[in-house]
Amino acid sequence: MSFRDLLEQTFWFFSSNKVRSGLTMLGIIVGIGSVIAMISVGQGAQQSVQDRIQAIGSNLIIVMPGATRGGGGFFFSSGRGSAQTLTSADANAISSQVSGAANVAPELDTRKQVSAKGENTNTQIIGTIPAYTDVHNVSIDTGSFITDGENTSSGKVAVLGPSARDDLFGSGAAAVGQSIRIGTVQFKVIGVTQAKGGSGFNNPDDAIYIPLSSMQHFIMGGSYVSSIGVSASSQDNMDSVQQQINDLLLQRHKISNPALADFNIINQNDIVNTATSVTKTLTELLASIAGISLLVGGIGIMNMMLTTVTERTREIGLRKSVGAKKSDISLQFLSESVMLTFMGGAIGIVVGEFVSAIIANVIGQPTAFSLISVVSVFAVSALIGIVFGYYPARRAANLSPIVALRYE
Amino acid sequence: MIECTEITKKYISGDTETVALAGVSFRIDAGEFVAIIGPSGSGKSTLMHIIGALDTPTSGRFLLEGQDVSHFDDDQLAELRNRKIGFVFQAFNLLPRANVIRNVCLPLLYGKVPPGRREELAREALIKTGLDEDSFFKRSNQLSGGQQQRVAIARALVTDPSLILADEPTGNLDSKTEKIVMQTFQQLHNEGRTIVLITHEAEIAEYAQRVITIRDGLIVEDRLNGHAARTGELSKGGIVPAAGEAEVSA
Fold first, then answer.
1. How far is CA A356 from CA A28, A102, A150, in A?
2. Structurally, how many domains does chain B consist of?
3. Chain A contacts of B87, Cβ < 8 Å?
4. Contacts of B226 (CB under 8 A, 6+ apart)
5. CB contact under 8 A, A323 and B75
């Protein structure tokens, strides 16, 4: 039997068994559709997590204080992040001595109650310098960011994140020129930043930026900083910049054993990699759950094909008696099951993309279309047809024509 | 055309051995119309399976057009059936959802007939069986029993086989259509085709030119229609004398 005849016979069989073929295909459609939808949603989530991390800054290296350790033969640690070992001077040293460090922005953070015109909120106060905008990709919406002059003179000026502005002055209200009170100190609003998106703690939109020196003088006291953000000039020299910072700080802090460093350096690539691996695992989990429904669909195909073989026993006997070889019969049944899963796969991909578009709309999460996943899902669906169609096809092919013709 | 020598067929199920054919020898020449008659359990169906290349004998030699097919494998048998044998079954065995033309074309799918020529061949075969041309594109399950059997005969003819093998072709038909179908066979015979008819009804066997009676796996009588039994004496298409047969006919 030629390939053309085979296809023709297969389509004829489907068109004369529309309901049953359709229902069987539905199993594959649902299976493939959910795999596609889950992969798109997962990859969309992965993309959006990556984007958010990139929004923190580009080629960002963050130096954080480590644990304070006692000296003299006995080391005690009071825990990571507890140390007040990083200073503005460290930041200046990094800026001047580390090659490849494009921008360096020390910051001192705390959370404070902030009030304005009777409204108040508890938000993150970030004391920093003008370079912060370059390190953390912050853009100004209205007004201006902190200037070097304001930093040197410990000016009582503040730049609001859009969420903080909304909380204090009402959504979208003009805030520049108004006064706010951070703790007990009054600050004048000189600018509002553009929304970056984000949520939870460390939301860049729910923050108030003031000069680092003002933070150190009026709010926290002391000359230490809570972290130093460094942006490397390119992605390629991030490792080298990180190494130089490490060596410089060890030397400045007079620490000979690197294991006892009183600071930690976090590389943005590490954060991206960690977050990506988390969302990737999540995507795989979702896809494998959806894969179960695909498996069930495949079993549905096998079930239908087995029923078909039994039901068409006489037809098989007849075909054999008029000259069909074993291979003709098994090819016919295989082609029916592969065609079912193939068409089911094609429709499933369309349905899956449609569903993921709906999900994207409803939860506001972008979904990603991935050609590789579509192609591989297509291949998988055809494979399912072969795997689950093989046994029924073999059973049909091995029927003896005499027994098959006598079958009632 | 067909030459059977000492054909036996045994079935073994569990410990019991059933002998369906106990040594059957005969010859059928081209152009003959032969009825093989016998009660159920006589072995006539088994014989039909062997003549029809659906099965191979346990022992003995079966020549079809001078070719020994006793030891053919499944695929070789399938090819042989496709080229040399046309089957007509009691239950018609048409594809119910397929139209008449598609049913008749079925054997051509497995042969080497180019797609463009199939419908033409099917029409020729259908016209020979006298089926109305209006019915050609009807679904086979919309036809009457007699029409269905004529479609089945056309299907058997479409490959232009050397042998037409009909297994109780009128078993599911009323006496009026039975007559029409049997006349169709007679007409095909008159056109020079070789027909072997398997039946248990003596009346049906009367349409044939020669009647072979089989019982308990052995041939008990082989006669030309309308003549006295002439076991072992047939001049045309006669039987090959074999041990055991002489005793029965004596």
1. 17, 41, 50
2. 1
3. 321-322
4. none
5. no
